[in-house]
Write a structure and sequence with these properties.
Blueprint (H helix, E strand, L loop, with lengths): L21 E10 L2 E11 L4 E5 L6 H8 L9 E9 L2 E2 L7 H7 E4 L11 H12 L5 H14 L3 H4 L12 H13 L5 E5 L7 H14 L4 E5 L3 H7 L2 E6 L7 E7 H6 L4 H7 L4
Parallel strand pairs: 3-8, 3-9, 6-7, 7-8
Antiparallel strand pairs: 1-2, 1-4, 4-5, 9-10
This protein binds adenosine-5'-diphosphate and magnesium ion (MG).
Length: about 270
């Protein structure tokens, strides 16, 4: 798994180095005939945490999947609109699906490390997909760096060869974050990353998010309003009225969304009156 590759030149800087924002323009989405998002536009600024909030079924996960071209893999799914990463449309003709995936990482609600694969190999697993070849020593450094950023290094550095599946749920989620970071994404999408975790693990992930946002733009879906208030710079409130597709009712700085929302539905939602 970790064969030494001698005397290769140092890897070129990844083209995704540096902060980049993500902008969704007029995104509509369908599953077959069922329209689930209607012309949703949102600017997710570089170096910020944007929280997507709103009741179940209003299209938050679908929107997130559109941001890294996972939606198009769902049979029968379609979409309209543009997603600009650092000003470039990831859906433009000629842009490769894999480029978007490497630059825009995703962490899911249920931690999904490769359970039988070692902690070390979980972290480096994305490098094979990106075709990145590294010297053993550089790869060791990368594993330490990514596990440190994910807040997991101190807990696992003496057992990197143990399977990822042997870790606790919170540790597995942090391993998934480390795995995402190894390909040096510019954006990290997180779909309810703490919903399956205990309060202590949740805190650890929130601390990790606060550190990571210095170098990776973050978009997080959360149903936990305290969490949205703690971790995000801006919020977007999604809503799908009965039998209508999801829209963004209101978005803005988190403090304003919580303390002085313009729309009464936002006030009701963030204060738990929905
Ligand atoms: P949220 O994440 O806000 O709960 P989703 O994006 O998961 O919302 O779902 C939005 C709508 O799209 C819902 O009506 C849901 O039933 C529908 N939907 C989601 N995924 C699929 C799918 N794979 N096939 C068909 N409909 C789907
Ligand atoms: Mg969802």
């Amino acid at each position: 798994m970790t064969t030494t590759i001698p005397d290769l030149p140092a890897p070129a800087p990844h083209p995704s180095d540096g902060l980049a924002g993500l902008e969704a323009r007029e995104i509509s989405a369908w599953f077959g005939e069922h329209k689930v998002l209607d012309r949703v536009s949102l600017n997710m600024r570089a170096g910020e945490v944007t929280a997507l909030i709103g009741p179940s079924g209003c299209g938050k996960s679908t929107f997130l999947r559109i941001l890294n071209r996972m939606h198009e893999l769902v049979p029968g799914a379609s979409l309209a609109g543009e997603v600009l990463l650092a000003g470039q449309d990831i859906y433009a003709p000629g842009r490769r699906l894999t480029d978007a995936r490497h630059q825009i990482g995703m962490v899911f609600q249920k931690p999904n490390p490769f359970p039988a694969m070692s902690i070390y190999d979980n972290v480096t697993s994305g490098l094979k997909l990106t075709g990145t070849r590294m010297r053993r020593a550089d790869r060791d450094d990368l594993v330490e760096e990514c596990l440190t950023k994910a807040g997991l290094w101190n807990e696992v550095n003496d057992r990197l060869r143990q399977p990822g599946g042997a870790l606790s749920g919170g540790q597995q989620q942090r391993l998934c974050i480390a795995r995402s970071l190894a390909v040096r994404p510019r954006v990290l999408l997180m779909d309810e990353p703490c919903s399956a975790l205990d309060p202590t693990s949740t805190r650890r992930i929130e601390e990790t998010i606060a550190e990571l946002v210095r170098e990776v733009t973050i978009v997080i879906v959360t149903h936990n309003m305290q969490q949205a208030a703690r971790v995000s710079d801006r919020c977007a409130f999604f809503l799908a009225a009965h039998r209508t597709p999801g829209v963004i009712v209101e978005h803005g700085p988190t403090k304003a969304m919580f303390e002085s929302p313009r729309d009464s539905r936002t006030a009701d939602y963030v204060h738990g009156r929905f």
